[in-house]
Amino acid sequence: MPRVPLTPLLWANWIVLGLGGLVALGLLLWLRRRGEFRDPLAGGRCPGRPDTGNLLVAGAIGVYLASGLLPQQIIAAERFRADPGTHEYFVATSIALGIRVLLGLAGWWLLMRLLRRPTSPGLEPLPMPAARPAMSFGSQWGVVLSVGLAALAICTAQAELMKAAWSTWAPEVSQPQHVVLEALQRNAWGLRGEGVLAAGAVLVAPLFEEVIFRGLLLVGLWQMAGTRSAWPAVLGSGVLFGLIHYPVPQTIVPLVTFGIILGMVQVRTGQLWIAIAIHAVFNLRTMATVLLNPGVLEAGF
Q: Per-domain residue ranges for the chain?
């Protein structure tokens, strides 16, 4: 694949981040103007019935654990533990991605089935506040693009602060790099390997992770809390989302923030696909930039 010169690519990246910063400011002003700045989640409607929350949380845990255990049972040990970028690594990754797609779809089916489950006799459904006006399809895509840009700016700023703090407090310890970025740098599969990694980051990861964290887990925690504020569910699912990325510890804080932003979007819109699309946009920026010129990693991207 032809490489884009490094300097214009970095400039384009900074322009996108600057635009995202302006969009984030605009969103805050919009919330303030609507009187929703202090509690953007007020009026959120908890879906489903009060006795399925524990099943949804158990489903989230089960799907997540299965995504780690099943590949280990199916893939040969030498391939499962292969160094990033090798032929064995890409074979293992391709199988693991296929498993994650199936588990993500299974999680979505479980979520829809439990949310549509009829209320048992004698069990009162969750009382709902008045619904927000329905959003048009164009408005939904506006949310995807605006929140995606804003999240990029906010989380990138936090990531840079975390990297600077690491360099200041532990300069002798090298900062871990995400395994996907390592694989791109040592890619033994060429263009096919880039396609596998890009599909995993932009398609599979958003589907799988959002079904678990903003679908099963957030809704389950919200149901378990009854009609109280959605904030505990949003914060809890966001923190857990950041913590699963512990192999790259400097990204935990930015990803906790990202998870909370996605949770707020899920509560306000009630559309899981919007959170999935924002997550895809977020990952697409990183993958596209690195694929266009891997030299950005050496430049501190």
A: 6-34+43-117+138-293
Neighbouring residues of 11: CB distance < 8 A, sequence distance ≥ 6: none
At 28 the pLDDT is 96
103 near 208, Cβ under 8 Å?
yes
pLDDT at 294: 85
DSSP helix/strand/coil, 75: coil
CB 205 within 8 A of CB 180: no
Which residues fall within 8 angstroms of residue 118, CB to CB, at 6 or more apart?
A: none
What is the distance between the alpha carbons of residues 213 and 208, in angstroms, rounded to a whole number?
9
Question: Rounded to 5 degrees, what are φ and ψ at 292?
Answer: -70, -30
In whole angstroms, what is the distance from residue 38 CA to residue 76 CA?
Answer: 52
Quote the longest CA-to-CA distance of the chain: 67
d(CA 283, CA 193): 17
Name residues of the chain where pLDDT drops below 50: 121-131
Q: What's the pLDDT at 118?
A: 63
pLDDT at 126: 43
The encoded tokens of residue 176 equal 């871990």
User: Each residue of 148-184: pLDDT tens digit?
Assistant: 999 999 999 999 999 999 999 999 999 999 999 999 9
Q: Within 10 Å of residue 242's Cβ, how many Cβ atoms? A: 20
Cα distance between residue 232 and residue 213, in whole Å = 13
- pLDDT score for 50: 73
Decide if 92 contacts 71 (C-beta within 8 A): yes
Q: Full-prediction pTM beyond 0.90?
A: yes
Q: Name the DSSP class of 38.
A: S
